[in-house]
Automatic annotation (TrEMBL):
Protein name: Polygalacturonase
Keyword Transmembrane helix (UniProt): yes
Chain ranges passing through the membrane: 31-48
UniProt keyword list: Glycosidase, Hydrolase, Membrane, Transmembrane, Transmembrane helix
Organism of provenance: Fraxinus pennsylvanica
Amino acid sequence: MADSFRFQYRNSNNFRFDYKRSLSLLFPSRWIPLSLIWAIGFILIVAWQRTAFDRFWIPPRSIPSLRSLVFNLTDFGAVGDGVTLNTKAFERAVAEIRKRGGGQLNVEAGRWLTAPFNLTSHMTLFLAENSVVLGIDDENHWPLMPPLPSYGYGRECPGPRYGSLIHGQNLKDVVITGHNGTINGQGKTWWIKYRKKLLNHTRGPLVQLMWSRDIQISDITLRDSPFWTLHPYDCQNITIRNITILAPLSDAPNTDGIDPDSCVNMVIENSYISVGDDGIAIKSGWDQYGIAYAQPSTNILIRNVTVRSMISAGVSIGSEMSGGVSNVTVENLLVWNSKRGIRIKTSVGRGGYVRQISYRNLTLENVRVGIVMKTDYNEHPDEGYNPNALPVIEDISFNGIRGQGVRIPVRIYGSQEIPVRNVTFQDMLVGITYKKKRIFQCSFVQGRVIGKIFPKPCENLDLYDEEGRLVKKSMSQNSSTDTIDYDS
Ligand SMILES: *[C@@H]1O[C@H](CO)[C@@H](O)[C@H](O)[C@H]1NC(C)=O
Ligand SMILES: *[C@@H]1O[C@H](CO)[C@@H](O)[C@H](O)[C@H]1NC(C)=O
Ligand SMILES: *[C@@H]1O[C@H](CO)[C@@H](O)[C@H](O)[C@H]1NC(C)=O
Ligand SMILES: *[C@@H]1O[C@H](CO)[C@@H](O)[C@H](O)[C@H]1NC(C)=O
Ligand SMILES: *[C@@H]1O[C@H](CO)[C@@H](O)[C@H](O)[C@H]1NC(C)=O
Ligand SMILES: *[C@@H]1O[C@H](CO)[C@@H](O)[C@H](O)[C@H]1NC(C)=O
Ligand SMILES: *[C@@H]1O[C@H](CO)[C@@H](O)[C@H](O)[C@H]1NC(C)=O
Ligand SMILES: *[C@@H]1O[C@H](CO)[C@@H](O)[C@H](O)[C@H]1NC(C)=O
Ligand SMILES: *[C@@H]1O[C@H](CO)[C@@H](O)[C@H](O)[C@H]1NC(C)=O
Ligand SMILES: *[C@@H]1O[C@H](CO)[C@@H](O)[C@H](O)[C@H]1NC(C)=O
Ligand SMILES: *[C@@H]1O[C@H](CO)[C@@H](O)[C@H](O)[C@H]1NC(C)=O
């Protein structure tokens, strides 16, 4: 329809031309300016109509039926005016879907204010184009839940924590998708209250699914979460694809994008994340609570993701990793205008391990520190942590690291207690901005470099040629880069 209208519009130009010429033949020359004004007026009206047409007359994308039973949120009395509280409508809809053994809930265009609600199994939540699920920003509407067992505490206050805006426990086969509709946590009020210490409980995530499996989250936008944005906890088989996660880059505390936490078999791909903390942070519980809960995060693939993070890092592992993190592949990751590219963070007391982590084709555009490993991230739930619980960090490989405008490309600080073992660097070429001698910083690191890399690696690493033959064995794995420059 739009095309045929544009065609008409083009014709109207020709029409104007012909019309003017015929006018000048028919009328004396003093009529020409008048006919010109008329023609210009005509064009302006047509142009205005065309904008109006585009704005008002392109029909909304129709919503596909992805399950045999489909409901609209409005069937349950919801009003999308941004003011009416629709919690009951969401609850009634979910109850109906639960009763019927599954179904799809369409959230149509509009602004649907709600307090937290639960999903159910075999459910698809479909967020239509221009639909916004708005989280109410008054904490009195947010239910409290027991702390996560692997954390022992709310993450920022002892005792219970606020639940998530969209929540689910022990579910199977859950899909949240749409035509890029939005779930908006209206986090600003929460961030301000948190900073002013007006909250007595840990803030809630935007979307949290616990002890669930077969989850797909795709083609939607998540924004302004009060706390972590998307938090799959002790879940299996999760696909997150083609989503956008947004929060302000500063003054939006703890708005991590995605926190895979004690999760197995997970893919995160084709997504854009720009938030006020880590873009993605893989976790598995906190100190003695995480060690006791003992559920690792494993078999995680992150690919074709673009991240921006001015406070923390593009993709992190930890710092809560006490259940262990293994078999993680991060590939085709772009981190731009950020503080750090990737980071592994842990501390004494965590226990657990971080191993079999492979980074391939990492692009770092204007980041201060590219690759970071930090073993003194001393944030503990309480004094009951075990100082002898030492995490293991090993078998980490980097292949294909590119970038420009990077200040410190590598900073790996193992320690006497937590040395970093078996790190491999291959095919690295990063443009730097900082002409300091030690920009590949290491301490307590054992590993190797295969072939030539830039910048020149620290002396802690063994050197191999392209064919994998040892060229030079390091005699100083444990030496520390002299200038520790935490500031940059
Ligand atoms: C849902 O709304 C759409 C239009 O927005 C309509 O075509 C469809 O019939 C409605 N479905 C139900 C189950 O009410
Ligand atoms: C949501 O689920 C949680 C956990 O299963 C439960 O405690 C809570 O009562 C549920 N809320 C509603 C409104 O059903
Ligand atoms: C990604 O999401 C956008 C917006 O919802 C959509 O237009 C596009 O088709 C999606 N791409 C894929 C590959 O699904
Ligand atoms: C989806 O919406 C977000 C926020 O409005 C926008 O930034 C993003 O580009 C959109 N995604 C696609 C694929 O259109
Ligand atoms: C926090 O606790 C204090 C003291 O018990 C109480 O006065 C205040 O209203 C509480 N604030 C919130 C947001 O619940
Ligand atoms: C994983 O979940 C998807 C739905 O999200 C499902 O189609 C698929 O069969 C599941 N795979 C396994 C191995 O359970
Ligand atoms: C990578 O993700 C973007 C969306 O962020 C998408 O447009 C593009 O098609 C994806 N590339 C591949 C190779 O899947
Ligand atoms: C590691 O994870 C990938 C998915 O990213 C999976 O295909 C592979 O089987 C896993 N490897 C092992 C040894 O479990
Ligand atoms: C490397 O990743 C970038 C995105 O960061 C992508 O554009 C490029 O195609 C990838 N290269 C290969 C060889 O996959
Ligand atoms: C070192 O790590 C690589 C993976 O990066 C692995 O293939 C290799 O087996 C490890 N070497 C040892 C000695 O564990
Ligand atoms: C370096 O320190 C680690 C642990 O602190 C130790 O196991 C290793 O033997 C030391 N290596 C050398 C060459 O001194």
